[in-house]
Amino acid sequence: MAVNDLPIVGDSFKLGFRLQRYWDTPMASAFFFGELGAGLFFVSLLLESAQGMLAGLLITGLLKTYFHLSHMGVPQRSWRAILRPDRSWISRGLMGIVCFIGFGGLHLLNFWGLIPGLGGLFKLLAGAAALVVMTYQGFAMSHSTAISLWNSGLIPVSSLAYSATAGVMLLLAAVPESARFLVPVALILHLCVAVVLLSLLHGARHGSPGARKSVELLTRTLYAKWFFALVCGAGVLLPVLLLWFAGSVPLAAMIAATGTLAGYYTFRLLIFKAGVFEPIMSFRP
Amino acid sequence: MARYGMVFDLKRCIGCNACVIGCKQENSLPDGVFFTRTLSEEYGVYPAVNRVYIPTLCNHCEDAPCEKVCPSGATYTRPDGIVMVDPEKCIGCGSCAVACPYDQRSEMKAESFKDGLFGTGELTDFEKQGYPRYTPGMVTKCDFCSGRVDAGLDPACVVTCPTDARIFGDLDDPNSKPSKLIRERGGKTPLPEKNTRPKVYYID
Lengths: 285, 204
Fold this sequence. Notes:
Chain A is an all-alpha fold and about 280 residues long. Helices cover about 70% and strands about 0% of the residues of chain A. Chain A has helices spanning about 25-45, 50-70, 90-110, 120-140, 155-175, 180-205, 210-220, 225-245, 250-275; strands spanning about 20, 275. In chain B, about 25% of the residues lie in helices and about 20% in strands. Chain B has eight helices and nine strands. Chain B is globular and about 45 Å long.
């Protein structure tokens, strides 16, 4: 029997591929809301939309935090996650989140005229921290050599692309007057997301047996219908079609944004669910 | 200082799972948690069919990916090479679990400690004395029975094995049994392409 023919064995005492089950829906939700909030804040920062910046800070600060804590086995000790920035992307990311909330809040207060001076510095630091939050989760995943699908430089790129796309789409849906500027940007970003998705699948398809098994799960077996319907259909194709009308029909922008977010969330969830550990085969007869 | 490791003799393993039970008893593991498993696989075509048993546990890697990603410093390596988890520091984030290529991390779910082995909500005396060593919600793993090793004993799975398929000892000592077996019979490590440098070897 070849390695590729081995089954997914779940938690049984058989040799085969094992599904990653440690990071699941709460972690996917935390990743989703973290990147969504940071992406919305970053785009709003560039366009100087105070409401967008506030919404971005609240999404990351409240929803990401809530889902992270609900994932943690020992949530009362979560502060300890900041202790090893020298080696852990989780620690670096937590520092990024603290800076993002802190400097983002200070920039917003400065923007509203509630605190004087240093506006440019706060803006710069808040933007840099937002970029860290937009990407660090991708680095945390790609750092793992255990799960071949994740062990790709394209994972942080996908985090950045999706985060920026979701931010642009949310702002477009909330502020229809910005359509003239945002629609071309959104189209380009959706194209980037599509290219990243295809490249990720292509790379994994020609990677290790575990990566090939993950691609099989995403495109042919267990998760194929969700992947094609929501990640590809609702998340990329539908928004690209509707964006052509977003300038004149605000409802089209809202439906497109909903599709983008649905596709993005499904991607986050499925990339976790399709992660597999390789079978121990080195000494197999 | 010793550098502890283990050798699995695949020719001797009969898949009886006594090691699994010995480990669960020694470590007071709750329902569904295993620090060691004996995997099996059938191969060949009838009538030339065979079955192989492959024992697995934490490989106590020299370059442990679980230690590198741990954000709280809970996972650390002792001077004798045993990779440990500090139950007072673990936050249960699962980073180590997704970083271990061998899927050898176990979540100690809080409900396991409440329901007990029989699911009645009442803990047996065995569970009452064993569970306090864990923090509910932490992610942990095999530590080569470090308490036994410190007392000069072999890990529970090694002493339980009726066929001596598990051999434990100092890999830095050229005269130790595991060192000799690795040298004489060509020990192989699991998933060497992951570059983790395991201290668990397989011979067949």
